């Protein structure tokens, strides 16, 4: 399922992304939706349905699911259902995240498939060391299938919002990246491809400001594969989509590494590396930022190439042409002092998937070596003057109501953390 995040912490996909969608936009939409979700809790009138017109279970404070989970609040909503923070009455009121699937048969089937993937991952990782979220329970309530997950902290997309969109320190980028790679290397070792890696699908283990450990969530799109097999279906959220997926040239394990490279750059700059919505624009940015697209990846009937050459972005409409023309290259985005980080993400963002680094090899890269000193590179979250170049030149950023609002919010937002520990986990 390819879509964008609507309300964040539990990352359920419900629509195609727009060019203006960034971590900042998504976090703000999540914040508005979460606040709104706590209202409208009037008691059911006689004969009123438990579901809304779209088949979602309505939120009711204190509603008991399956005689076990007492609703506290709604955390997120997407195409497949809603996620509620609940108190587990059989576990001393411990908070859990319960994903309640819409009353649609195909969504129930997809949720059951996701549960089977999570069951397999848990069996393969009995010590819970591989940084994948844990499924704790599943069942049915009020005609809905539900999945119950462990309590986790906010997503990395939310954490950027809480930090007022200041980039993370190199120390935290390193630890976040290592945990992502541990999870993906584990999955790849067992012939599984995540296919939907993005900041909203990586959650802090705890809701604390100094937490450095994360877990990967949202396994609804996980695909089983085998060495040498190439898939052709459309996967991944647009901004994290690998070039081999864009070109339908056949994708496999390396597609996950492309997404991780995009995520690490987003943590480094606080901006999406590819804030796009259209494939032609996306391919031009890939070609400009990461290197030329190999001829072997281009089909003869590709609408994006002429005589084997990518269409000139100057032929695009003015806004799109300007957007491509003013992007920085990967080398320009990363500060010279962060050479090891640059080398690591460069290998993750190789356009040719056959040349891309594997998750296992990435874990052995010097950037993720614990013995190396990090003092010189741990100030990425300092003053504005010390921050890395944005992936887009602010002086030439396209003028629109959305981007103006994003800049305004960025300069005025207050990074206020809620005092109550929130429960976060997957939803699709």
Annotation keywords:
six-stranded antiparallel β-sheet; 31% helix; two-stranded antiparallel ribbon; globular; single chain; 428 residues; Phosphorylase Kinase, domain 1; 12 helices; Transferase(Phosphotransferase), domain 1; disordered N terminus; alpha+beta
What does the secondary structure layout of this molecule look like, with pairings?
Blueprint: E1 4-5, E2 13-15, H1 23-37, E3 64-65, E4 69-78, E5 81-88, E6 94-101, H2 105-124, E7 135-141, E8 144-149, H3 156-162, H4 170-189, E9 192-193, E10 202-204, E11 214-216, E12 223-224, H5 243-246, H6 254-269, H7 279-289, E13 305-306, E14 309-310, H8 318-325, H9 330-333, H10 339-348, H11 359-363, H12 401-412
Antiparallel strand pairs: 1-2, 3-4, 4-5, 5-6, 6-8, 7-8, 9-12, 10-11, 13-14
């Amino acid at each position: 399922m390819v879509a964008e995040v609507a309300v964040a912490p539990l990352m359920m996909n419900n629509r195609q992304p727009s060019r203006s969608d960034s971590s900042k936009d998504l976090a703000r939409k999540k914040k508005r939706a979460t606040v709104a979700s706590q209202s409208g809790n009037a008691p059911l009138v006689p004969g009123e349905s438990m579901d809304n017109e779209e088949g979602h279970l309505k939120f009711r404070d204190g509603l008991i699911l399956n005689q076990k989970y007492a609703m506290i609040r709604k955390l997120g909503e997407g195409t497949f259902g809603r996620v509620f923070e609940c108190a587990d009455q059989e576990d001393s009121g411990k908070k859990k995240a319960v994903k309640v699937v819409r009353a649609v048969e195909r969504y129930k089937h997809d949720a059951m498939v996701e549960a089977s993937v999570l069951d397999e991952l848990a069996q393969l990782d009995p010590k819970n060391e591989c940084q994948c979220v844990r499924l704790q329970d599943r069942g049915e309530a009020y005609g809905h299938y539900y999945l119950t997950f462990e309590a986790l902290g906010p997503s990395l997309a939310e954490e950027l919002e809480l930090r007022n969109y200041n980039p993370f320190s190199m120390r935290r980028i390193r630890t976040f990246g290592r945990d992502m790679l541990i999870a993906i290397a584990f999955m790849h070792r067992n012939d599984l491809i995540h296919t939907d890696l993005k900041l909203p699908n990586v959650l802090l283990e705890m809701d604390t400001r100094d937490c450095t450990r994360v877990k990967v969530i949202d396994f609804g799109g996980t695909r089983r594969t085998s060495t040498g097999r190439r898939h052709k279906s459309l996967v991944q959220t647009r901004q994290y989509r690998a070039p081999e997926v864009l070109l339908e040239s056949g994708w496999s394990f390396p597609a996950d590494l492309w997404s991780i490279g995009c995520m690490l750059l987003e943590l480094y700059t606080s901006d999406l590396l590819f804030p796009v919505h259209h494939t032609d624009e996306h391919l031009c940015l890939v070609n400009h930022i990461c290197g030329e697209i190999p001829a072997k990846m281009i089909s003869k009937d590709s609408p994006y190439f002429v005589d084997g050459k990518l269409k000139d972005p100057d032929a695009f409409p003015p806004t799109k042409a300007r957007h491509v023309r003013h992007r920085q290259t990967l080398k320009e985005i990363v500060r010279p002092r962060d050479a090891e980080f640059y080398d690591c993400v460069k290998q993750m963002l190789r356009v040719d998937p056959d040349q891309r680094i594997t998750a296992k090899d990435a874990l052995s890269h010097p950037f993720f070596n614990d013995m190396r000193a990090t003092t010189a590179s741990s100030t990425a979250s300092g003053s504005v003057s010390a921050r890395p170049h944005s992936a887009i030149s602010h002086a030439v950023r396209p003028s629109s109501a959305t981007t103006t609002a994003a800049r305004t919010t960025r300069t005025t937002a207050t990074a206020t953390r809620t005092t109550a520990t929130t429960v976060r986990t997957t939803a699709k």
